[in-house]
Amino acid sequence: YKKSNFKKIYTFHRTLGIMYALTEQWGDSGTVTSAIFQLENALRTRNVYNSRIARRQRLDPIAIDARLVNLLAMAYAATGKNEEAVDLQLNYLSDAVKAKDRFTSREILREIDYAKLEGKQARQYERLRKTVGSM
Hints:
Elements: H1 6-22, H2 35-57, H3 66-78, H4 82-98, H5 102-111, H6 119-133
Helix pairs in contact: 1-2, 1-3, 2-3, 3-4, 3-5, 4-5, 4-6
């Protein structure tokens, strides 16, 4: 943290998040020893790095990790935050589609439970699914 090495910070939170998820310590955004806290911080760090550092210095961005997105969505669903889970997946799916990342798009798409979607989420899912299918 002192050196602001965002890639190492990302890896740190990612690793802890995966470990807490494997033991189903879902927690919440305010509990440091939880999957949700660590996975949210990993994704937040990735987003900051990509938007502030990689873009300005023309460095390679940190790619979207479908497993991380899907683990956080699983953690949200396990704690009753189903709408947040789907929103998260759809947002990162949209980003993967924009990046023309077919593999990541399919990995995220596969984990979304279409049967539970309604309204705006269902329409966004269908639009993205069609786009992924034509990639």
